[in-house]
Write a structure and sequence with these properties.
Elements (H helix, E strand, L loop, with lengths): L9 H14 L8 E2 L2 H8 L3 H13 L3 E4 L3 E4 L8 H11 L7 E11 L4 H7 L7 E10 L2 E11 L19 H9 L3 E12 L2 H6 L8 E11 L4 E9 L14
Helix pairs in contact: 1-3, 2-3
Length: 248
């Protein structure tokens, strides 16, 4: 084997491009997807190939078809993944899609952050860190509670991190512009746990023992240094993890 990634069949390639646009929020719920004829013309493919691409998206629950009207983006009951939000920030200049909003509930300097935060940011145990806590809403439903942590050294170059004002393109894009550092990759670690009192209150869960998904998300810059560490919590039914891998 030559080590090169296998080439996707054309219908999967097209479905993947549409999937990224949907999950990134570029194609919001209710938006009509290009027809089979339009996809065939746009990509220079046969209509059966375009049909297979749309069928794949329907099987995944991302789109639905109405006879005589067309194919439309489904109203997904899931939260956006960090990668989807980064894509939206790059493409549209804003991190949240239509129908989503973030409420910054606190932005402050913490003199002694928790040990796991200090380790994630690679700062000393007694070094201050910036903390931004937010609740993300879809309509009137809270769908995520997340806390972003940054090294306190960014306070001078990126002062908006210490304000509860919304940062429209997202904190990573703002820090990139303010500091000259470039986010190059990210790593996520997922686990399940009980909500706890604070998260249950923020997400309006009936019980503090309700199961939630906890994600630790770390963004690294071009020097392989942590740029942002995020602790995100998602209520039941608001998260999905998908992964494609080859079996050959």
């Amino acid at each position: 084997m030559n080590g090169q990634a296998p080439t996707l069949p054309k219908f999967r390639e097209i479905a993947e491009q549409l999937r990224k646009r949907i999950l990134g929020g570029e194609l919001p719920p209710g938006e009509e997807i290009p027809s089979e004829r339009a996809l065939a013309l746009e990509y220079g493919i046969s209509r059966p190939t375009a049909t297979r691409a749309l069928e794949l998206l329907r099987h995944e629950g991302l789109v639905y078809s109405v006879q005589g009207s067309g194919t439309f983006v489904a109203d997904l009951a899931i939260s956006r993944r960090p990668s989807d939000r980064y894509q939206r920030s790059r493409n549209a200049g804003r991190i949240y899609s239509d129908g989503e909003r973030a409420e910054i509930v606190s932005a402050e300097l913490v003199e002694r952050p928790p040990e796991h935060v200090a380790n994630a940011l690679r700062i000393g145990p007694k070094v201050a860190a910036i903390r931004r806590r937010r609740v993300i809403w879809k309509g009137d439903v809270p769908v995520e509670v997340s806390t972003s942590w940054f090294s306190a050294s960014l306070a001078a170059t990126a002062p908006r991190l210490l304000s509860t004002e919304r940062i429209r393109p997202g904190t990573v894009a703002y820090v990139e512009e303010a500091s000259g550092r470039q986010a190059t990759y990210a790593r996520d670690r997922m686990s399940a746990r009980a909500a706890g009192a604070e998260d249950a209150r923020s997400m309006k869960l009936a019980k503090v023992t309700a199961p939630v998904l906890a994600v630790e998300h770390t963004v690294f810059d071009q020097r392989d240094e942590p740029l942002e560490f995020v602790e995100a919590v998602y209520p039941p039914g608001r998260w999905t993890h998908e992964q494609r891998y080859d079996l050959l």
